[in-house]
Amino acid sequence: MSAERAVPSPGVARVRVPERGLRQDVRAVRIVWQRELIRFYRDRLRMFTSLLQPVLFLFVLGTGLSTLASGGIGGLSLRTFMFPGVLSMATLFTAMLSAGSIVWDREFGFLREMLVAPVRRSTIVIGKCLGGATVATSQGVIILCLAGLVGVPYSPALIATLLAEILLLSFTITASGVMAAARIQNMQSFFALVQMFMMPMFFLSGALYPLSNLPDWLQVLTRINPLTYAVDPMRRAVFDHLDVNAATRHALVTGVTWWGWQVPVWLELAIVAFIGVVMLAISIAEFRRTG
Q1: What Cα–Cα distance (Å) separates residue 35 from each residue in 105, 108, 124?
Q2: 185, 109 in Cβ contact below 8 A?
Q3: 1, 40, 146, 167 - which has most CB atoms within 10 Å?
């Protein structure tokens, strides 16, 4: 009780507003995070449709293209090669749509109620990002459970590595989506923005094909695509646990190079984390200016 102060309201019931502090901020982050989870797990149709596209890419497109490419990748199934890319795909779209819930909240007036709450607006943004990252990671876990069906082993070290990379990617994409949604007024505009950026990012990330032997203009686009620096570490982790010969690995896992220099995995992940932190900072600044 000592941490609360009374707001005088003549003629109406007195309202006690908690004093701002770290405890209230952490509680606000937890409430927003929890709301994102409840909203997602109550929407069974959204859960199903979010998984449908990655599953189609992995088992329908992967199987179909395997009939053409099996002779060119050392006998390795194309579905095995595509698995890290499909994993990133499941994370990418789920995280972005989770961030889009801000637009729904603005349209229905719930965002205004959150913004007038006696907590820092940064806590709302952080809760949204953590909630979206958790939801997207859970979708990635479901795809991870299918790894054995495409020849990827259930190695504890591999699963732990992929989980950490999925979580990092989920947070960065959600923060990017929140940054974009901060100024968008309706869901139609947000979906148009998602379609305009998400599909090119996915196709230019090397999720479906090796990055070697591409035309120069396409190599430039893949290097400036943030998703490239998340897909490549996942693919390297998967191939570290596959029994493939050196020639096949060299042909399929070329990594990302800058003017001939091989970018190490730690730097790729640091780039993804840096982008996530920058997007989070911009999102917080956008929300502080929101009236």
Answers
A1: 12, 16, 11
A2: no
A3: 40
